[in-house]
Automatic annotation (TrEMBL):
Similarity field: Belongs to the E.coli NlpD/Haemophilus LppB family.
Protein known as: Peptidoglycan DD-metalloendopeptidase family protein
Listed Gene3D superfamilies: Glucose Permease (Domain IIA), LysM domain
Region (Disordered): 76-103, 164-229
Statement: the UniProt record of this protein carries the keyword Glycosyltransferase: no
Domain called LysM: residue spans: 41-85
Organism: Billgrantia antri
Length: 352
């Protein structure tokens, strides 16, 4: 019986240790997935970027991106520049600046005259001058002596001269006042200013600057950009529709049109090129066209590009050739965005 009790006690002790180890085991979570899903708060500008391309890459309206970073047309940016991508990023950067003194840093008092107080902890310059205070108190309390209480003749004369005001010496001749000039005579003498030539009115927000390149020159094709009120949409390429809006693939914000490598890709409407390059991952050789302040269109996976930034194009103009850059086959990926938000292109393109 005694052995049975001993065995039971040992078993209970072992179970208790196991339970204690089970509860004391730290819980480990893999945070890599959550980190990857967290949207970026800042973007570092690279050579060849434009503000439109950066906004497109992060599903933003280019105007919001410009507002966050206080950049105006023509949206000039520089390689290495940090751009904020959200209001939260702007707020956090402001809080970090305002909270610098609260993180263990001590404000340093500055002495009068611009000098900095010694860092040895000696604050004698902040203390009052006891000797000066005592000297002022003593002078105030002591009465003036008989001799000191009588003002001198020089002091009386000086006080009278100050009270009477400055006088001119008799030997100095007084200058007669200059005759006043009538306003009409002065106006007649001055010639009328020639009207300044008025600069030609330039449409605001008409183009973009490319990071790392000199300031843009006037449009190479000689046409000026005028945003259209209504975009006359037309199909950008001939071919079979192999991908619809929101269906499969890594890029689901538009449609895919299959075709042959090298066939022409045309502008779906008149506008100005605000991005032309391969810096947007997943799009290959990409062209972004701005039609007006609301609508932009994208042409991806091109083989070659026939336009550059700030080229003004007409509807139906060839802007690229179809290719398979960042795609499994030759195709055109076409998108339409309104105020930065993806739209179904089939709602805008005519039926065929």
């Amino acid at each position: 019986m005694r052995k049975v009790f001993l065995v039971s006690a040992v078993a209970m002790a072992v179970a208790g240790c196991a339970a204690q180890q089970e509860y004391s085991t730290p819980q480990v979570r893999d945070l890599s997935v959550s980190r990857e899903s967290t949207p970026a708060s800042h973007y570092t500008v690279e050579a060849g970027d434009t503000l439109y391309g950066i906004a497109w890459r992060h599903d933003m309206d280019y105007r919001d991106l410009a507002r966050l970073n206080q950049i105006g047309p023509p949206y000039r940016i520089q390689p290495g520049q940090q751009l904020r991508l959200s209001d939260a990023a702007a707020a956090s950067s402001g809080e970090s600046r305002s909270g610098e003194l609260g993180q263990g840093q001590v404000a340093t008092a500055t002495a009068l005259g611009g000098g900095t107080a010694a860092q040895t902890g000696d604050d004698d310059w902040l203390l009052p001058d006891e000797e000066a205070i005592e000297r002022n108190r003593r002078l105030t309390a002591e009465p003036l002596s008989a001799e000191e209480g009588v003002p001198s003749d020089t002091a009386i004369a000086g006080a009278q001269s100050i009270a009477e005001g400055p006088t001119q010496p008799e030997s100095q001749p007084q200058t007669p006042p200059e005759p006043s000039v009538e306003p009409e005579a002065a106006t007649a003498v001055q010639p009328e200013p020639e009207p300044e030539p008025q600069p030609e009115a330039q449409p605001q927000d008409a183009g973009t600057e490319v990071a790392g390149e000199p300031e843009r020159q006037p449009e190479s094709n000689g046409r000026g950009y005028t945003p259209v009120a209504e975009v006359p949409w037309q199909w950008p390429a001939d071919g079979e529709l192999v991908g619809r809006f929101g269906e499969g693939g890594s890029i689901t914000a538009g449609i895919d049109i299959a075709g042959q490598k090298g066939q022409p890709v045309r502008a779906a409407g008149p506008g100005i090129v605000v991005y032309a390059g391969s810096g947007v991952r997943g799009y290959g050789n990409l062209i972004l066209l701005k039609h007006n302040d609301q609508y932009l269109s994208a042409y991806a996976h091109n083989d070659s590009l026939r336009v550059t930034e700030n080229d003004v194009v007409e509807a139906g103009q060839v802007i690229a050739t179809m290719g398979d850059s960042d795609a499994e086959s030759a195709r055109l990926h076409f998108e339409v965005r309104k105020d930065g938000q993806p739209q179904d292109p089939l709602k805008f393109l005519p039926e065929r």
